[in-house]
Amino acid sequence: MSSTIRDVARLAGVSASTVSRALSMPEMVNAATRERVQSAAERLGYAPNRAARGLITGRTGNIGLVVPDLANPFFPSVVKGIQARARAADIAVFLADTDEDPAAEVGLVRALAKQVDGMILCSPRAGLDELTGFAADTRVVLVNREVPDIGSVTFDNTDGMRQAVGHLAALGHRRIAWVGGPAKSWSDGERARGLTDAAAAAGLEVVKIGHFPPHYDGGYAAADQVVASGATAVVTYNDLVAIGLMARLDARGISVPNDFSVVGIDDIAMSRMARPALTTVSLPKQQAGRVAVELLLALLDDPDGSAGPSRQLPGELIVRGSTGVTP
Amino acid sequence: MSSTIRDVARLAGVSASTVSRALSMPEMVNAATRERVQSAAERLGYAPNRAARGLITGRTGNIGLVVPDLANPFFPSVVKGIQARARAADIAVFLADTDEDPAAEVGLVRALAKQVDGMILCSPRAGLDELTGFAADTRVVLVNREVPDIGSVTFDNTDGMRQAVGHLAALGHRRIAWVGGPAKSWSDGERARGLTDAAAAAGLEVVKIGHFPPHYDGGYAAADQVVASGATAVVTYNDLVAIGLMARLDARGISVPNDFSVVGIDDIAMSRMARPALTTVSLPKQQAGRVAVELLLALLDDPDGSAGPSRQLPGELIVRGSTGVTP
DNA sequence: GTGAAAGCGCTAACAC
DNA sequence: GTGTTAGCGCTTTCAC
């Protein structure tokens, strides 16, 4: 159905290798021949079969992308950044959604690894050993996860939490609750630690409220414990949790921000739309995606394939209505 | 780096062809040999190179998926459905996001078409001729778009609008505004027509308010015209628009649902979380994704590749706070 | 039931 | 500068 390199060769009256050269290394071929080949290719709508090319060059021009859950708006943003940067490099993206299932993660990585040049793993839930194992087989870049000897793009949680604490301290809060996300989430640990350290430095008290699913319902469920903790402000694992938490607060007649302050992390679109709008540590999600692709490309061009420098991106506190009033 | 069929053959003490058979047509090989091959494959972590296999079988085991904008929560849901169904069939998914750019759409389809068995195009913005052209080259299934002779999965907009109108009429509304989405969107036309027809049948008046971007900001921008129209209720192109519209209404001190009723379409997660929660025509997004994959699989198995039967999925009105009160 | 040989579409080495 | 040859990893005749 689709035309091959030989069709073009026949039409242009040259050999297949000349077609190949004319298309991928135009300098190496006579100008006249080149034009003949190019117009023939044009006329046939020819485009090389990348699978066949990959077989011989060892480069497929494809990358794999694994995310835990597309329904969490954080990930589509990262995916968009990755897409955009990959397309600019003429690279196609395999996407897999694991549904937050670590076992599925392992299977999907193995399945995809064979047909891609490298993989980007977003917030992987897999264990350290598994990730190290992946990186031995394939070029891997991590997003929102740090593992020794594997390239990664992360966010500066320490500084983000410092900003959040500074803001809450300035509003007069003395006791802050932390609502944690999935126990297997690397960033959960980072954020909790960042918050604890920043609070200690500022002389504030932190109450940790268990682990909750990283969704609206998780926040909704956490709210009552947060209130019972005696805190006057809360920082949550992510925006979705914060929004769910605010809904429960509202249902109980607790006013945000008059009675309570809420700070999220991520800055998903929904946070602007919430009422009151959510104060949050904004993370450069699309940029993280773009940077991840760049790291991966560097890794692919690097003959020994050692991990390039990892990148840490800054977060920025966006103050909105959910922390507008002093307690 | 990765082991090939010959490595397995050597370890099992058989030929490559036997390995191939033992793995893909286990019946055709002696039980003892089969076990030897399978354990050898296991030990080496062998998985066939799908590109190489595709070269000879003509089937890559991959499908392409093109969506206009992952930032619109409607699409991640569909993508999740597609992913899940594809994975069950051991099929990998190439994902491309066009950023609502029809030109990018064409380019991406062409680029992907070569390395996939078929493509799913979600809410494509491309013209009729272009889509027909695609379908001539590749197996194509459309989601949320209907084109003659191309298989598709759509939602029953006519019935959905009938439900919405029935609800609003029962609340006592006599004059309903319609806020349209992108002019190039097929479903925009369908929904507008569905609403108009249902309103006519029920003896209600419809005021159409132009075309707006299918986002929060579009709804925010449309609100003032909606109010000026003299309508007491509004149906919007999608939930995002409805939520933006409600925000502007709120900013102007117009109470939903006391002064105004709002109905969206899609039922994205955010609609449950909005305050007041949004009444909306819920669309089975994940199911649409699953069905699209099934249609595509049927198309691939069909030797003459003619368009299979298209499927239309029902929508269901979910009544929430945004239409709770009679005007 | 199994192996040897051919070939999918392409590119890279080697001749010329 | 261009054609010929070989081969990427796999499946599929065709012999045996």
From TrEMBL, chains A, B:
Keywords: DNA-binding, Transcription, Transcription regulation. Residues 3-57 form the HTH lacI-type domain. Residues 307-327 are annotated as: Disordered. The keyword Transport does not apply. One of its GO terms (molecular function) is DNA binding. PANTHER family: LACI-RELATED TRANSCRIPTIONAL REPRESSOR, TRANSCRIPTIONAL REGULATORY PROTEIN. This is LacI family DNA-binding transcriptional regulator.
